[in-house]
Specification:
mainly alpha; Rhopdopsin 7-helix transmembrane proteins; two-stranded antiparallel ribbon; 7 helices
Amino acid sequence: MSPVPVFEFLHQAQLANTVTGLCTCMAGVMPMLYCFLVRRHPPRWFFVYFCILLTGIPTVWLHSDEGNRIAGATDVGSNIFLTWSILMAVAGDFMRAPARNRFRAVVTLIDFAAIGYIFYEAIYLDTRFKPIQLGDFGQFYLGETILIMNSWFIAGLFFAFRAQIPKAARPVIVSVFVMFFVGMILASAANNIIWYRIFAWHAIWHIVGAFALVTLWVFNEVRVTELEKQGKTL
């Protein structure tokens, strides 16, 4: 008896995209597990790890049901929500009130407005705006462009407050940024592009991104360890 396919994939790359989306889920599960097995991190960072898991679920949904515009909006919206949670955590690490509160309020307003627009676009508009177009190779839609801007903003904050990061942790956060930069290049391709039979651009972005997110936990772990040596907390 022939196996019955669970999903009717639109192209060959989508199976790889769907399965590697589970890597993102695990990139959230494992840091949360490590918070119990190794060391507890501040609640704001545990929330980030939880948001990683939340991001992975719509990724699997989108690639198993491509063309579902609500799935697409949920996927991009959850990614923006993840970067928002990281911005909130970074503000808690380095900023003091009232500047921290103002920063969080402004970022929350912008990011939640962006998420709202993404769902409005998915439900009511026939076409999606593409601020960055790369011809037949790929493109970045508006939500993805906002996600990239958020990510660069996170990198800028860590750079601005680098003096407060223990020296032992600095190479780790640099490696996270390098992986996400490589991931941004990989994500620029349309999700059906495969080179040399095995190089599925979008699926490899999922894998690289998952490694980067787990390495973010490593960065925090090194920070916590080094700060404890100094009698400080994160």
